[in-house]
Amino acid sequence: MPTLNDILILLPEFYLVGAACVLLLADAFMRPAQRPWLHWISIAVLLVAIYLVIAGQPPQAVTAFGGMFVRDDVAEILKVFALGTTAMVFVYARPYLIDRKLVSGEFYTLMIFAVLGIMLLVSAGNLVTVYLGLELLSLSSYALVALNRDAKLPPEAAIKYFVLGALASGMLLYGMSMVYGASGMGGTPTLDLAQLHNVMSYTTAPTLLLFGLVFMVVGVGFKLGAAPFHMWIPDVYQGAPTPVTTFIASGSKLAAFGMAYRLLDAGMGDLSQHWQLMLAVLAVVSLAIGNLVAIVQTNLKRMLAYSTISHMGYLLLGLSAAGPEGYAAAMFYAICYALMGVAAFGVMLALTRAGFECEEIADLKGLNQKSPWMAFLMLLAMFSLAGVPPLFGFWAKVLVLEAAIHANMLWLAIVGIVFAIIGLYYYLYVVKVMYFDEPVAGSELRVQPDKPLRMVLSLNALSLLVLGLYWGPLLGWCRRAFGL
Amino acid sequence: MNPQLLQLICFYAFGFVTAAAALSVITLKNSVHAVLALVLTFFSAACLWLLLEAEFLALALIVVYVGAVMVLFLFVVMMLDIDQEKLREGFVKFLPVGLIVAAVMLVEMLGLIGVRAMQAKVMGADPALAAGMSNNTEWLGHALYTKFLLPFEIAALILTVGIVAAVALTLRERRDARYESASQQVKVNPRDRVRIVKMAAVRPDEPTAPQEPQP
Questions:
Q1: Are the Cβ atoms of B149 and A2 closer than 8 angstroms?
Q2: Distance from CA of B204 to the nearest CA of A (A)
């Protein structure tokens, strides 16, 4: 039976459920003139949730509801950053939503439910919780992508996302059922990740277990958006309203890392020599497809989508090292990517306004002459994504490459470096367009006058520089979470 | 006949029907037939659950899915008017290749898993009996509210998201649509709408119709 202690461990999650329901009701009873308050209330809700996560941090890992839910440092760090980046998305989204008349309680409620899905997913201690957390996140995301129903692209993107997402969920469930079956052969069947950890040692059906593992890796690969399961990414990134794209590029990636870690290390850690190679192959294919296809893109959103695929390749590089060092590097990378993604899409949101969607790379022509500060912020985001020292992205790349080398996968690290250099081209091309191209005659490039957006965006992009110089504390935090 | 052998035969028979019906759901050209095949799929899956002594789940599947959801589906499909032929053109072209790939994968998986699975016993112990309860339904209810309480609540949240999403995606005030306000319609006074005017049969100021030209 659940006790009070169980509920206290899940306090941030319970609080978010309550807050989401209150927001939904408030939206129904508010007068239209009061609607803008929803925005600030939602941001406050997320900030309070961050406080609850940090304040209630247990001294060591604890479980609740009979092992269904794990609260450890890994989950805490991922939750703090998922909540933080979502709060940033809210700040950046406001002018965009107002201009497109999309301000509604549903946007905020669905976003909060999606974050709740992330929090449950990264804390999952059981296959059932993994699956349900993932579905909560995915279903909210599908609806968010389709929210701008009157435009042409969003419904198409949402359908693609939904169909492929359902397929991936099916794969994942199929794998889980096989693993469950294998755990029942020679022992009591279990769904608990901690108990699944040593199924390999007693099961009479190791082949079945490996089959299940393959299907679960496919599910994880889809959620990360790693090639060859990346087909949904470019269309969804391009079709979704930009604030939703920002969320999918930041919070969802943290969730995907959390899910991969829970399933592969906590659950299938004994099989690491098997999944190590699978992840390495996924990493190489993602690096190649992501970086090479990004070069020919003219749409900035699509280019960033392919860049995501390549970044997931680096994340997989860290994961495939299959050790605490690799996990710490991969988590550091996921956090770094979330901050960079929010910054890059944030600049796009700052330049988008009613009747003008800043989507094409050509739209940025001569940005430096119009707004040097915005151009500088985009420069920071692009250089960080490319991995130019001394920015944040550089250290993240160095750490995953180091982890791969320490795990005796020198070839993988070399592939990573080669593709990092190829990837430089398309990030630098954006910088070149901003700084060295003349603005198009009659171009209406203007920056949103929204003060909170400008302020938070500046802080966000500058944090890439600051964290590039003082990356020690964050890395120390990540390493301690994995017991290093 | 050995009861375990009978059980095994039933399992394979139900499994085969489930898979065959599921395949026909996506291959049948007539969408009403496809829905009926889906009903068969659910029914065979329910039979599989009965075989596992999960009576409650089996009956719930039939009552909820076959009884309610699929009938609703059938109505929707009958009301839709889609040109199925065009949708299927690409599918039929690639079907043989897909079938070969699927068949090879199936044979491989059966070969790898099936052989080993034969050694183990067909059915696991009934969790209800292991927990000291008389039947499956009781055990299910107990497990749902104790061991699986958290997943149960998350499932409730997922349903909430489903409702919120459905409302957000379909309920829109459209500018170009016309609405009727029943209360305003009732309040209307006939004198506001219809004005009875007395007038002459021909307006005096209007010129008379032009004369027919004389032959």
A1: yes
A2: 55
